Structures are given as structure tokens and as C-alpha cells.
Amino acid sequence: MTHIEIDRMKVKAWKNNAKGKGIRWRMLRDLIATISTSWLNSYQVETSMIRLWGTKRKSTREMLNELVGMGDVLQEKDIQSPYEMKYYMNQERVGFWFPLGGLKAIPAGIAEAVKISMNARLSEG
After folding, report:
1. Which domains does the chain show, CATH number per domain?
2. Shortest CA distance to 87 belongs to which of 122, 39, 46?
3. Pick from 21, 30, 65, 115: most CB atoms within 10 A?
4. How many Cβ atoms sit within 10 Å of the Cβ of residue 72?
């Protein structure tokens, strides 16, 4: 199988796993997928969600706060930017959010949006 075929299968499984769960649940799952492999600051997470869903920064912060409150997302102060927080997925929750294949089930499109957003920096202008 080629990488393209594998990615198409991942996308199909990703969509099938979300059937009947609603848009908000899908947004939460994609948000968690963005922080599933590395710590990202709030600006980077917000930028990823703008790319994936077109959400407003405030909406992403609200979802992050919900997920932190439930224990699905870990939160720390960002040492490099004291006014920013950074986020990472609680690895004990992988089975709930990604039951079909764990972190390997995350489609390439989400990983690409995160990779681009990791370079995002809040302008100091």
C-alpha cells in the first residue's frame, strides 16, 4: 500500500469514528490531536485550530480550559513566554479519544497543520 492509500484509510476511519458525535466533539478531538505529540503554547494551539476548523482564538481557549478541567489535557506555564500557557495531551486518555490505532490514527492533515503552527509566534508589534 502507498502512503496516499494509507492516509486515505486513516481519514476515512477518523471520520467514521466521529459519526453521530456532533461537530463540537469532533473539534475537541482535533484539538487534542494537535497537542498529542508535543507541548504547544496557547497561540500555537489556537493557530492550529484556525487552520483546521476556522475557530476563533477565544473558542479554542474555552475548549482547552474544558479539557484541562476534565483532565484530558495537561497545562503548564511556558518558560519562554511567562504570560502564555502550554498544553499537552494526557497520554492516559489516548484510548478514549483515539480508540482506533491510538496516536497513529491521526490523519496527516492535522499533523501538517500542527507542524506549520509550531513556527507561529505572537507578533510583538
Report:
1. 3-18+25-117 (1.10.10.10)
2. 39
3. 30
4. 19
